[in-house]
Specification:
Order of helices and strands: HH
Distance between the termini: 71 Å
Radius of gyration: 29 Å
Number of helices: 2
Helix content: 55-70%
Shape: elongated
Number of strands: 0
Structural class: mainly alpha
Strand content: under 5%
């Protein structure tokens, strides 16, 4: 009986080590594929639509600074924030 417990424990230890290894490999592969598919698809969509998501176009202004519109802070705005 003692020999069976030791054999089962060794088998369990090896099995769990194999499971951890396969889990790490699968996670790396799946996350890499997921990243490439999602980021690649987003990149293609943005390129097809010719969007400049960061507003870094080559315009004639000497600066990327954009003026912010003035917001009047008052009691009415505090009551209706959203």
């Amino acid at each position: 009986m003692d020999l069976m417990k030791k054999a089962a424990h060794v088998l369990y230890t090896w099995w769990m080590a194999l499971g951890r290894f396969l889990g790490a490999v699968n996670a790396a592969i799946l996350l890499t594929v997921f990243y490439i598919v999602i980021i690649g698809a987003m990149s293609l969509i943005v390129r097809i639509l010719r969007k400049d998501l960061l507003s870094h176009g080559a315009d004639s202004s000497p600066s990327f600074w954009k003026e912010k519109e003035q917001v009047i802070h008052g009691a009415d705005q505090a009551r209706h924030q959203f």
